[in-house]
Amino acid sequence: MTFEDLQSKWQSQDHSVPLDINSTELMAEVRRNHRALDKQLLLRDTVEIIAAFLITVVFTTLAFLLELSSLFLCAAGSLFVGLFFISDRLKQRRRRSSITDSLPQTLEAAIEEIKHQIWFLRNIMWWYLLPLIPGIVLFLVSSSWQSRANGYAEQLVIAAVGAICAVPFGLIYRINLHEVKKMLEPRLNDLQTLLTSLSSVESDS
């Protein structure tokens, strides 16, 4: 039986009579879903952190080899993103509510985790994309300035490179907002509804 099946059965249950759904079974399913989400987030963060530090090394190396100060700014932006992932994960580990034998506390812990992930992805423009933009812009502007004597053709190529760089940024932003709307917000609503239903049952008993 899936979480959705358990939730539907719990909400449709007449709680004035003995329950035919075990709250322990429901809590186990909530925990299982919570652990699955944690594993997905750990994998995502690990990949992003590794990628951020590899990109930092690449930009730093190129900056030294090509003697382009703008690439140091690109490296700094990438390093900031990697450190932000690490800082956020450590902070959430300290703040995360302990999972106890209480179903309400288990639900509350899962709700807080999802709320944070919604905030995390909705603000991706500020902590993920924006730190990378100054370095890229400076690189393009400096390249355009240095090639100004080579005619309009090279200027157009640089402008096209800037436009191409903007496409992945827009896609990353839209993909993350889509994930919030299609996956995280419905999941949050389900858990909040279940917690409200559970609270009303406990208050009536």
Outline the structure in words:
With 205 residues, this protein is mostly helical. It has one domain (23-97, 107-199). Helix content is 85%, strand content 0%. It is built from 7 helices and no strands. It starts with a helix and ends with a helix. The model is unreliable at 9-21 (pLDDT under 50).
Question: H/E element string?
Answer: HHHHHHH
User: How big is the Rg?
Assistant: 24 Å
Cα(first) to Cα(last) distance is 26 Å
How many strands in all? 0
- Average per-residue pLDDT, rounded, comes to 80
Uncertain residue segments: 9-21
Shape: elongated
Which class best fits the helix and strand makeup?
A: mainly alpha
Strand content: under 5%
> How many distinct domains?
1
The largest β sheet comes out as: none
Q: Helix proportion of residues, in percent?
A: over 70%
Number of helical elements: 7
Briefly summarize what is shown:
The chain is built from 7 helices and no strands. By secondary structure, it is mainly α.
Task: Note the main attributes of this structure.
elongated, single chain, mainly alpha, 205 residues
Task: Describe the protein's topology.
Elements: H1 3-12, H2 23-66, H3 69-95, H4 103-122, H5 124-129, H6 133-146, H7 152-204
